Amino acid sequence: MRKNIVAGNWKMNKTFEQADELVSTLVEKLEETELKQNTLMILCPPYPYLEMSTDYSNDSYFMVGAQDVSEHEEGAFTGEVSAAMLESMDVEYCIVGHSERRQYFHESDQQVAAKVNQLLAHEIRPIVCCGEVLEEREANKQFDVVKRQICDGLFHLSAEQFASVVIAYEPVWAIGTGKTATPEQAQEMHAFIRSLIAEKYGKEVADETSILYGGSCKPGNAKELFANPDVDGGLIGGASLKADDFMAIATAF
Ligand code: PEP
Fold first, then answer.
1. Closest-CA residue to 41 (of 184, 205, 33)
2. Which H/E stretch holds residue 211?
3. C-alpha dihedral sign at 203, 112, 48, 10
4. Which atom of ligand 1 is closest in space to residue 170's alpha carbon?
5. Which of 22, 110, 158, 222 could form a disulfide with 252 if both were Cys (CB 3.0 to 4.6 A apart)?
6. How much distance in Å is there from the Cα of 238 to the middle of ligand 1?
7. How many other β-carbons are positioned within 10 Å of the β-carbon of residue 86?
8. Topology of 4-250 in CATH?
9. Beta carbons within 8 Å of 244's beta carbon, 6+ residues apart
């Protein structure tokens, strides 16, 4: 079902003590301030903190997601973490195809597709990232790039499988740079993505898909971004590392 979602991508930040403090502070805040109905908070900490986070979440305050997963089922892949492992730790969401994975680890659309398959086989919902780099936007190629990422990464799925997918549009030039897409730019791309889904799976599936915006989203701009009809929340990096900022974003719907 289409939900408003605010997902925190902690990336490679925080020691265990700092992570524990952030999650416990968030739980205190969520006890004081309930999120609106149909609004979901997801925390995506580094792997070593997943269990601590699911313990705090108590199946009620927030859901827990991982930041990446192996494209392989199991075996001799030193350092990798499988979807089966995540499933066995009650992880319910997982980011796939983040621009940092694509840029620094050369992750391809085909690997994104394989990771999505692994996650779905283990009943974990993928949060699939897409978005253009600055040169692509300057060359007006952003729609071609996002279309390729969505088609090659996701459109092999059945409509039933696709219903578990969350999409995050993250213009790479806006990630961690302080430069946010304007609400108009975000809405334009989100509407485009929804139209691609409608073309492939029909309007009903498209209308039920949550499409998040990511890229320097913060308390000061979340409200105007989330006010757009096709923006169903955000994938939040830097601002998810501070409890007050993340709560302000989660209550900006
Ligand atoms: C991200 O990494 O997904 C992200 C959106 O980061 P930031 O909010 O820091 O731009």
1. 33
2. strand 211-213
3. negative
4. 5
5. 222
6. 6
7. 25
8. TIM Barrel (3.20.20)
9. 29
220 CB-near residues (< 8 Å, 6+ apart)? none
Separation of alpha carbons 51 and 85, rounded Å: 12
Backbone angles phi, psi at 14, to 5 degrees: 85, 140
pLDDT digits (tens), the chain, 253 positions = 899 999 999 999 999 999 999 999 999 999 999 899 999 999 999 999 999 999 999 778 899 999 999 999 999 999 999 999 999 999 999 999 999 999 999 999 999 999 999 999 999 999 999 999 999 999 999 999 999 999 999 999 999 999 999 999 999 999 999 889 999 999 999 999 999 999 999 999 999 999 999 999 999 999 999 999 999 999 999 999 999 999 999 999 9
Query: CA of 197: how far to CAs of 171, 206, 243, in Å?
Result: 19, 5, 34
Q: What is the H or E stretch that residue 9 is in? A: strand 4-9
Residue 41's H or E segment, with its range, is strand 39-44
Q: Residue 201: what residue type?
A: Y
Q: Which neighbouring-strand residues pair with 130?
A: 169
What pTM was estimated for this model as a whole? Answer: 0.98
* Total residue length of the chain: 253
Token digits for 113? 């597709």
The Å distance, Cα 109 to ligand 1 centre, comes to: 20
Distance CA(169)–CA(24), nearest Å, equals 29
Nearest to 200 by CA among 161, 226, 235: 161
**Which residues line the pocket of ligand 1, CB cutoff 6 A?**
9, 170, 175-176, 214-217, 235-239
